[in-house]
Structures
1.
Amino acid sequence: MARSTLAALLIYGLGRAAFALDIGPTTISVPVFGIPLDIPIQASLDSKSEGGGVQLDLAVTGDLKSLQDNALAIARKLPFPEDACARKGPNLVVNSIDSAHIRAEGDTAVIDVAGKVTAWGCAKVLGQKIKTKIATDRIAITIPVELYIPTPRQVALRVKGEASIKTGDPQITEIATALLGNLNQRFTDAVAKALDKDKARASVPEIPGLDVKIEQAVFAQDQDKLLVKAKADGHATSAAFESLIGLAGQKAP
């Protein structure tokens, strides 16, 4: 979009009591476990002139198909237990992750993971760790995750509640249930580590004179497609508002 067009829009908008504009689609890149995800973003901007600047209300929708398409690669980065003798007694080892899907469930996203698991017994004999295989089975793990707002300008991801583990073997189910709290903590730590850096969070653009706070961020769905919906409000100077309008010309590829 040409600068003269931006200026015309700006003058037009500031000359009215209210001004509405659709921004995008544009694309932001968010790395998760080192996997770059391109997320198309569409925004609706309502504004009104106030105090030499513009009062803003933003509603943003992001298409998380890229996240869903990379579900298996993301699931394989999760810290599933691998040590058959991590502690004395029974231990659970996830041998492989064969499938993964990410879906919406209300305002939560759910990661469904399937693979193979082995239960081991571990004992120390004459100073040596001795492991004994108890059983091997298929395993299904469900991990609920939610969006939260770590700072007024950022949206991040964390585990919500506890993961659930299901197997067909009663012995493995018993061990998994005993270890679930620890597993859930490991999942939580891994997600936090992956998204704790600024570059791994979705952020409000750093535009001088733009003071916007994110008020809400939740997951949603459109049939099988996972979406993120966010709302923000704030204030912008005339120059910052012009820069924000410029995003309308940055179309997603």
2.
Amino acid sequence: MKHLLFAVFENNSLTNDIVHELSKNDINGTVLGSTSLKHMNSNIEDDELHFISLRHIDKLHLEENVTFYAILDEEEIDKAREIIRTMSQKFTKVKGGMFVVPVESYEGSF
């Protein structure tokens, strides 16, 4: 069975090292820049929160995180989680978190 590993890291110098180490260990996935709603909402006036449009995003200073996700086999999940745990020192050196969910079905060449 395949599983989806989803991890979010604050963007700092160690984050790139984690992603590089995953790649060196044949853990292939997707990396995206992201921003938490907490940081996004702190830059918007309360009366503007009914709907967030591109106009609001243009005014924001977005604090970047790095989001990583990958569909992996059981053995790969264990290896990836250990790499992330070790290199982030259990998320003390690189703030963030991760979770895994089973993938019931998928299409493609993951």
3.
Amino acid sequence: MNKKIFLIIILVILATGLVVWFLFFAEKNGKISISQEDQKQIDQAPIVVESANENVVDSQQPAEKSPEEIVGAYEEEQKKPTETVYDAKEIVPQKEDVEKNEEIKIINKLVSWGYQKYSGERKIDTIIIHSTYNSLGGDEYSVDKIVNIYKSYEVAAHYLIARDGSVYKLVDENNIAYHAGVSKTPDGRNDVNKFSIGIEMIGNKTDGYTDSQYDAVSDLVKKIKKSHSIKYVLGHKDIAPERKTDPWKFDWDKI
């Protein structure tokens, strides 16, 4: 036999043997051996399923608020009343409009109680100054709360002066307002309501009054004096000394 052919046959046999060895032994040795204990742990491991979309938001969870929304919610919460509201059903908003004149700006807040209508022209010669504040809880100087107290007692003055100097008209001057009660002027006349105009100054027994209030009451008294022949400008305590002490801490030199 030719040596060249013999070598080719030997090479083919060797190559065939290598292929057989690789297919048999390499495949067997390449497999991962897993013990029964490892397989048990794999079977007991929890199956984790991840959402296909990580940005999906649960509709039942509240969305995060921006800082502006949080501040806005806080401010709205602060507006809610924290004090006890007395007879809330009795609080009736009054229509307000502004009465303008050269001396003073007057806000009409006319009430439907606490006075008697007067036919004809009422003769007025006395001005009575009172003190008033809200003693039922909450803002002591709230105009609406004070007016609501007047309603519960069915009383009223002609004018109410707020802490900022705003002047509210509650009763027309020609009507008889129930503000003086049992009282008597220095000249001995009773039924002071019939010939007087009542002015309420908002202030408690210790704080006194603001400069704006003094300016407002001074202008108001001047206006009234132009329309009526005023003989007396008195405090409530001057006509009812046995039962009244207001106006509290009032500086008469400022009017």
4.
Amino acid sequence: MQHDSLPNPVLSSAKIKILSYRNIPLFQSKFLFICSFCMLIIFGFTACNKKNLSVPGTKGRKAGPVSVEVKVVQPELLLNTVSATGTILANEKAEIRPEISGRIVKILFEEGASVQKNKLLVKMNDSDLQAQLKRNEAQTMLLNNDEFQKRKLLEIKAISQDEYDVAKSLMLVNQADKQLLEAQIAKTEIFAPFNGKVGLRAVSVGNYVASNTLIATIQQLDPVKIEFDVPEKYSSFIKPGMEISFGIDALDSVFMAKVYAVESAITTETRTLKVRALCSNKANLLNPGTFARVNMILERFSEAIKVPSEAVMTVLDGNSVFICKNGKAVVVPVKTGIRTDREIQITQGVSAGDSLITTGLLQLTNGATVMVKKKKTETQTVPTKEKM
């Protein structure tokens, strides 16, 4: 029997393992030891957590009252306002341009100066026209005498009707020529069309200008116009006579104006309504072209219910708020109206005297017990005046 000579598989495997472990480098052995130690710590921590979770008496423990802040609702003044951007315009504006060609012989205004209506601003050369007018006047005397004599001769049948008609026609043509010359001479003088301020001139004395050449501009600056656009949804509120306020970047003052005209149709490209208002400018503080920030009061509510925006919750079927009643949070559906950056008008659901919950809304449910915080008294520090 040769069974004793057969190798034992268990002993062989053990020897192989011993040999394999002996062959592992030292740094790998340390790494395996550290990994094993970390796994033991993790298993121990998990077991402790499970033990703590299974401590009797902790499961199903009821939470305490939710700490909240409330606001007692009171009727307040509410203004429905809308803001817009606009531009200041001159009340009247005209460009000074000649109607005929010619040479400028006089400029009778100072740049940037105020002028009165019908003041002569520019005089153009009219010497050739004046000469033609004198010639016409000389012909007028001859033609008038000729017409008079031939009319007398016609009365006694000394001449024919045709001869008299020719003389009369020449007289009438001469009169028409005189009127034309006088009209052309009048066009050599340019007058101020209204009281206003003349801008910078673009020509000088001696320049030859063609008809319609720009010489300068004149603008009436008291009052001034404010032109702005209002969104279509507010167009029904805008009426002539309503007051607006506006400000400009150059000044901290607030100016008042009154709407005097509204465009007859909505601008389809922007879906806005163009509006113009008038503002007094006796101090000459407002210049045409200035950017203006316009504010309009569309509606006034003397006893409106306003709540902070964060107190209103949006739900599937509308909006709701939490009201504190007898230490409980009660969900109340509400209907809203005007919205501002910080407040929302409540038109239905909340009444004066209700205690509105304003904080801790995410922790509340209908009927939850609440504890109202007492607001700390805020003290205002008034800075002392610096000594000069």
